[in-house]
Description:
The chain is of the alpha+beta class and about 240 residues long. The chain has two domains: about 1-110, Proliferating Cell Nuclear Antigen, CATH 3.70.10.10; about 130-235, DNA Polymerase III, subunit A, domain 2 (DNA Polymerase III, Chain A, domain 2, Roll). The chain is built from four helices and 18 strands. It has helices at about 10-20, 70-75, 135-145, 190-200; strands at about 1-5, 25-30, 35-40, 45-50, 60, 65-70, 85-90, 95-100, 105-110, 130-135, 150-155, 160-165, 170-175, 180, 185-190, 205-210, 220-225, 225-235. The strands form three sheets. A nine-stranded antiparallel β-sheet has the order 6-2-3-4-18-17-16-10-14. Helix 1 (about 10-20) runs antiparallel to helix 2 (about 70-75) and helix 3 (about 135-145) runs antiparallel to helix 4. The chain is elongated.
Amino acid sequence: MLVKLENPALLSKAIEILSELVSEVRIKVNESGMSITAMDPANVAMVGFKLSKSSFSQFETSGEVLGISLDDLKRILKRCSSESFLILEKKENLLSIQIQDRIKRNFTLNLIEIESEDKEMPNLEFSSRVELNSNDLVASIEDCRVVADACSFIIEEGKFIVEAKGLNSARSEFSGDEAEIQAENCKARYSLEYLQKFLKGSKLCEKTILNFANDHPLKVELKKEGMELSFILAPRVETED
């Protein structure tokens, strides 16, 4: 396996986000490109990442699966600058990582055995799809974090509402002018801690897509040309006070 990225910033940022949710992953490199699917240790969230073959300027693979510590990979990728390009090459039980800009730098990362089974993102049914500006959603989630540790996503009379209630409350309301809403009335509650981690990906994508249903898992999608970052989050089902 040998792949080359002219602009490694997308990969570096995605790995940084995923490393906050999972520590060790299998990175699949096949004819479609590079992909990661993993479950967080608490079995509350699932993460998915795809970087298409077309994103690479050189791509040679025979269908490798790389067991990687994301923290270790993240630290190496942070050494890339905006002018760097990146070459990844599998050599026996090592991943050779070459960063080239003014000078050539070489790292080796030990590949690890990962005992968990291969995961696939489940094919879930949703009654509601909302696409909105990522920064607007981030602001709404941060508002909710001020007053509670969970928030509700609500569809009501064609509007999308983000609401948190504790001793205090916060509420943001989006109409069809601020968001693309294809939805039926429903309500589901989710952990704000996880949502904040997911939405660090908003720096990569101008728009965020939310898929959910009544008391149903949430799917968050962040898409850019050649790249897709997705998360599935279990709902909070306890009764609100």
